[in-house]
Amino acid sequence: MVKDEVRRFLQSQDSFSCSDCAALIDAIPAENTVAAFAWCGETVGISFLSSNFHKIFGYDSNLFGEEGVDFITSRVHPNDLSSFFEFLEASHKPVACWFQNPDKAVFEHTYRLKHGSGRWIWIKEKLMVLSLTPEGLLDKVFIVFTDVSDWKNKSEEERFASLCAKGKKNKLVESLIKYKKLQEEKNASTSLDQHVLTQREKQILNLVSKGYSSKQIAQYLFISRHTVE
Description:
Strand content: 15-25%
Order of helices and strands: HHEEHHHHEEEHHHHH
Oligomer: single chain
Mean pLDDT: 82
């Protein structure tokens, strides 16, 4: 269904060739995937969002359009927030667009996200840079969000089972198992309000989404580059 929706959207646009359309559609996994086309340059917004957004994320699709990058950053698990920011910054410094060099225009990251129901799900985000601004900054992008919770949870269960087997003979591993259980309990009780971004953080992320570098943001806000990062 998502592939059909993307195909219809691409066919309604004049900027994509048949081969480009086919390649973009092939990049979409068959299941548990939300697809989106967005602007990240001088104009920020969503031009397309697949209709299964609520099914996968558990939120009204309008929130994604209204909040933009804040929708994700305010719901990423606290333990994954730092690596997500690194992914975000890296994706905003592309050296080529996907049509010129696919290998250098695709960014991927996997993180935990707060589902609308309150549970944590694992999302694999794939961002493909479709165009750059005249200044060489991020402009139009194609984003694929895939719910990989089943795969991640299965991997974790297998690893945990292996630890439990070793723990019978190893005190250190036994301590690691206890720590993991405590972490799971802590994660389950983590509320969304505990890691909502501050106004300053949102201000910085807004500038990041427009393609500004850490140095440029620091100069614009009259703060140090270290503070920005």
